């Protein structure tokens, strides 16, 4: 099939087996870049037939870039361990529709799930991600959090990735809090500077957008919870950036 699967992992024993089974449906090899997991992630990956490369975590974009030279094929399907192709995405790849036209990257729609519940409100659907690209002309950015694929000719297609990232609201909050710290550091390193009002303003705007304009209000407690979590993430990202600024002035 001349497609390489690429996955970055750390303590993903819960998901990696299912992820690799799904990838091998459309890929003839899978490369796992593991950040020295403490659980059975590496063992399971090898049992499933993946090639495992171990590398201390460099950040989201650099970690993916580190795995590219190990991929023998030009076309790369780069999923997270908790992401799986939906049937329409499998068909898109197996039927080689990606060869129609001169595109070097494809953005798929993402269905995000909380446990088994689809979150299709508060701006979480359709959430687009480029997970399929040609490494000759497209590549991951150097961003350490929320990296993007740098591409010359990208196309959005109405096929889906299934993302089972969280079993509870607690997990979403914990992950968003972790990401907010990484994102704040990235913004600081890029020279981004803000005033005292930025965290409150952005948190408020994020809540209003998700709850009122993105239909969270029509989804009961879940809609309110997701909108508040988005507001929390936006607020904490800039609050932590503000702390970094003040610390740097001392």
Automatic annotation (TrEMBL):
Keywords: Transferase. Residues 6-102 form the Glycosyltransferase 2-like domain. It holds the Pfam family Glycos_transf_2. It comes from the Bacteria. GO terms for molecular function: transferase activity. Gene3D superfamilies: Spore Coat Polysaccharide Biosynthesis Protein SpsA, Chain A (3.90.550.10). This is Glycosyltransferase involved in cell wall biosynthesis. The keyword Flavoprotein does not apply. Belongs to the glycosyltransferase 2 family. WaaE/KdtX subfamily. InterPro entries: Glyco_trans_2-like, Nucleotide-diphossugar_trans. It comes from Flavobacterium cutihirudinis. SUPFAM superfamilies: Nucleotide-diphospho-sugar transferases (SSF53448).
